[in-house]
Amino acid sequence: MTDTTYRRRLLGTSMLAGAAIVAASALMSTPVLAQDAEDDQVEDIVVTGSRIARQDYVANSPIVTVSQEDFQATGSVTIDTLINDLPQFTPATNATSNNPSNGGQANVQLRGLGTTRTLVLMNGRRIVPSNASSVVDLNILPTALIQNIETITGGASSTYGSDAVAGVLNFLLNDDFEGVQVDFQYGETDRNDGGTDSINLTVGGDIADGRGNAVISLGYSHREAIFNAARDFAQIGGFSGASPLGNTVFDATNLPSAAAVTAAINGAIPSHTFGFNNNGTLFTHQGYRDFVSPGGIDYDGSRQPGPLQSADFLYTTAPLNYMILPQDRYNVFGAVNYEINPAAEVYTEFLFSQYETANVLAATPAAGPVTGFRVPSTNPFIPAELAALLASRPNPTGTFRLDKRFSALGPRRGSENYSVYQITTGIRGDLAGTRDWTYDMFLSYGRVDNVTTQSGNVSRSAVQRLLEAPDGGRSLCAGGFNPFGETQLSAACASFIGRLSKNTVTNDQRVFEINLQGGWFDLPAGEVRVALGGGYREQNYNFVPDALLSGTFVLNGVTGPDVAGFNAAQPLSGAQKVYEGYGEILIPLLRDLPLIRNLETNLGYRLSSYDRIGTTEAYKADLNWEIVDGLRLRGGIQRAVRAPSIGELFGPQNLNFPNVGAPTSTTGARQFSGDPCDIRGAYRAPGAAGAASVRTLCLAQGVPAAVIDTYTFANQQVSGLTGGNPNLTEETADSFTVGLTWQSPFSNPWLSNLSASIDYYDIAIENVVGTVSVTEQFRRCFNFDGTSNPSYDQNNFFCTLFQRDPNSGQVINTFETNANLATLETSGIDFQVDWAAELADLGAPDWGRLAFNITGTKLEEWQRQDLPGGAFTDRLGTVSNTLGLTFPEWKWLSSLNWSYGPVNLGVRWRYQGEVANFNNRTQIIEAIDYFDLNASWAVNDTVSLRAGVNNLTDELAPVYTPSIASNTDPSTYDVLGRRYYVGLTARF
Question: Terminus of the chain with fewer CB atoms < 10 Å: N or C?
Answer without folding.
Answer: C
